[in-house]
Amino acid sequence: MGEVPRTGAVRLLGGVSVVGPAGPARLVGARQRTIVAALAIRVGSVVARTRLIDAVWGDDPPATADKTLNSHIARLRQALAAAGLPEALTTQAPGYVLRLAPHDVDARRFEDEVRLARVTAGTDLAAAGRQLQESLALWQGAPLEDAEPVDWLAAEVARLDELRLAATEDRWAYALSLDASLDVAELEYLAAAHPFRERLWELLMVALYRAGRQGDALAAYLRAREVLADQLGVEPGPRLRRQHAAVLAGGEPEPLLDLPDAGPVPTEPAVPDDDPVSLPEPLTALVGRDSAVDAVVATVRGRRLVTLVGPAGCGKTRLAIAAANVVGRARFVDLSVVTEGLLAEAIAAALSLADDGSSDAYERLVRHLDVAAPPLLILDNCEHVSAACAALLARLLPACANLRVLATSRQPLRLRGEVVHPVAPLDPADAAQLFIDLVRDHTGTEVPPEQLDLVHALCRDLDGLPLAIELAAARATALSVPEIAARLSDRFALLRATREDPYAQRHHQTLAAALDWSYDLIDDAQRALLRTLSVFVGGWRLDAAEALDANALDLMTELVDRSLVAVDRRDGGTRYRLLETVRAYAAQRLTDAEAVAAKHRHAAHYLGLAEQAAANLRSGHQQSWLTRLAADHPNLQAAMRWLLDNGDGTEDLRLATALAHYCKFSGQYREGRRWLALALERRPEAPDEIRLQALIEASALAILDCEYPTSLRLAHEALDLTRPDRVEFARLLVLLASVQRETGQYEQAIACVERALVYYRVMEEQPGVARALHTGAFAAWVGGDLDTANRYLAECLPLVRSLGDPEAIAAALLNLGAIAFYSGDTERARRLFDDALERYQMISFDEGVAWVRNMLGLVELRAGRDESARAHLVSSLGVHRRLGDRWRTASVLEALAEALRRTGSSRMAAVLLGAAGAVRAAIGAPVPAVERTDWERTYGALQAELGEDDLLAAITEGHDRELDGILASDPKIGRSFTTTSAQP
């Protein structure tokens, strides 16, 4: 039966059984099980004695039925008491009541969960499918299979079986609508077992068709038609016929979501005229919570205990009040100042239940709430009395069969049957709107339009927490929005009520008090971990937390439950984070000694991670490692800063070196160069091997940043630390070839590549061979030697495929495309570019994407599709400029000049030629030989169109003006360039 419940659990979906806190109840015989089933089906309601007699013996009871029923009831009470449920079965005229929660009866729970899943399907099919899967897991066999086989039980079994089949059909419909992959064999079995259910045949046809089995789908229709005709004498219905027609035509089957009626959603009883709603009246409008209110209302109407759980200041109370106003007939109880021992008394007092001296508070609550239409009870701020709340509700809910409770807490109550509804902070747009509305309320003025971006940034810094936003907006009476934002560095001094609000809860007067409230409720070990977790920046994985504290899993689970640590689940992985407000609070409480120890372990962990990644970034696991490093980029930066300032070994140099490849792939050229430069300067006495690796990576990044003299200096410094029999020597030759390629020294570049290939092949260093071949091919085609480039790539592409390096494969395809393009085969070039583009996009390698866009722009120019060419080139230009690749920036500007010239913008084209010339002069790189003919063709055409004097004047203007200003001034490229270049 699994975990022993705190109250009771009745199973009807299989053999009839009852389990209490002390274990399973001993039920003797089919008739006793039938009595349990009859009571459980109407759990919480009176079942008359006459009805129980009919339930057990049917239409012909024996003369001793009444006496025998008494005996069964007595034995059943003894069995329930022995199971820890002494008060579960009570006498109430004219019969008996099983006083358990409806959710404790698996059949009732199944019905409610299926109904709720159908409500959920309106907004989230995946969640609805998961709910149905969990609900169907409640079935452990045929329903009521060991009870007395009387007529009413047969009807109940048929009803439950129908519900189960309908839920199964819904689960399949949801899954197929989401294109999920399921076991078609299950559907084939169901259709065979229930051949008259046309919906199962429809689902089977769609599932087979989606699995690529069109013939089997058509055969399924023929089987269905044969069964319906032979057994029922009818033809398939119109929907099944339409599915057949769609499959026959090879088209997509029609949607599966016109589901049968989900049945009535449980509704609240009519509100008596003499029982008005009693809720606090919020003073401000609720912003950004419409869908959340709808979801809470739907859940409250379907379940009896719902807990809104979320971090301090996220708006749980406001959401509960808004939902209660929709549901109606609610009573609000603020527990923030209540102690555990007085919980029942406090609730009774809030409900105005006077102490009559004849009963305790619990009994008064039961008398008031155990009625046909009890109020929705809202228990606000349960976190500090969560154990007492759980204990009280464990008694109160079974005793009051129709009672529903909506609780708010920073942690779940952990009560069986509880539905936890997470309350997240506001999304950025709603958070900004709330701030703007509140500023208007406080000052009577609007936030100036030019400050709206700052408002969004401010609300992001405040984590979208309504309480923090309200406290910040209250400062608008004395401070401007920029002044409020500037003071967020000391948010706890800023975010406090400007005057004492006698009606506000104490822990809502200041942001610090709200967090004190949560911090005081956790134990010392949890507090220590929370303080330690503040050293993370932007989130972390479990292994990172365990590097700081070996007990992190258990402790962090508690912090997650208490809404102090947030969980992000993406791409199959789990990451954790602190809201910035919580992180700042925890960091304030971190002692100096704790900070030193935590940051040291933090840096050590991320050094190990970076070195492991560096060993895998040229493998088939490249994409997963790039994703992981991108997620931890803020932590890597923090570790780097810590090691540069506090490290006493070579860890900073090792970390900067390990991250160099990641900096290349992520476009962080200058950040990677800065880290390496600082570490190299700080560690002049580092071992030669460590300095050698750092110098090589620094030289490579300098090439990408088009700082060729710096790259050469670093490469020659590295050459002094190695020998020709080392892999590093060959790698440096390849770097020298790369510099020579971009500075127009093509023959020298090929010579360096040939030397490097000799060394790599002697050492049987296949990745090095691949790298050298690629560099040689690149230098050859840029220099106009297409045959040599082809020869290199003929060997390079199979090699990089065998090595499984995704980026190298994409680069080889890009180079082959360039060769095809300059050889005049534009169709082959386009196919190769498209293939390379897809591969670069898969690993999010922006430099590669920009290169391909550049080449596709040239293909479009050659085809005469000038506007399409301009779009590709503008996209490429934006990325190259953001990355700092000035060598390609110049080439793209020259190609873009030709695109503009063709569309009538000759003067702007000439200005762009001048701008490209300025870039080339700055980095010392000529127009590549392979592009020289196109450049001369563009120059000559402009000369004819503008005249020599105007052409030179425009080129001079482009040479002298800032490129950003030039691009922004042209209506054909300004707006699209601004958008593209702003992309991350």
Structure write-up:
It comes from Virgisporangium aurantiacum. Keywords: DNA-binding. Belongs to the AfsR/DnrI/RedD regulatory family. One of its GO terms (molecular function) is ATP hydrolysis activity. Helices cover 63% and strands 5% of the residues. The chain has 984 residues and is mostly helical. Among the domains are: 9-107, Arc Repressor Mutant, subunit A (Orthogonal Bundle), CATH 1.10.10.10; 125-140 and 154-248, Tetratricopeptide repeat domain (Serine Threonine Protein Phosphatase 5, Tetratricopeptide repeat, Alpha Horseshoe); 290-422, 3-Layer(aba) Sandwich (Rossmann fold); 428-514; 522-590, Orthogonal Bundle (Arc Repressor Mutant, subunit A), CATH 1.10.10.10; 870-981, no CATH class. A hairpin with a 5-residue loop joins strand 1 and strand 2. Helix 4 runs antiparallel to helix 5 and helix 43 packs antiparallel against helix 44 (929-946). The two termini are 53 Å apart. The relative contact order is 0.04.
Short descriptors:
Rossmann fold, mainly alpha, 47 helices, 984 residues, Arc Repressor Mutant, subunit A, five-stranded parallel beta sheet, 63% helix, disordered C terminus, Serine Threonine Protein Phosphatase 5, Tetratricopeptide repeat, three-stranded antiparallel beta sheet
Judging by the overall fold, what is the CATH architecture of the domain at 290-422?
3-Layer(aba) Sandwich
Q: Give the overall average pLDDT.
A: 85
Identify low-pLDDT runs: 1-6, 258-277, 498-504, 976-984
- CATH topology category name of the domain at 290-422: Rossmann fold
- Which strands sit side by side, in order, in the main sheet? 8-9-10-7-11
Q: Distance between the terminal alpha carbons, to the nearest Å?
A: 53 Å
What is the helix tally? 47
This entry's quaternary arrangement is single chain
Given helix and strand content, the structural type is mainly alpha
Domain OmpR/PhoB-type: 1-100
DNA-binding region: 1-100
Pfam family, one: TPR_8
GO molecular function: ATP hydrolysis activity; DNA binding
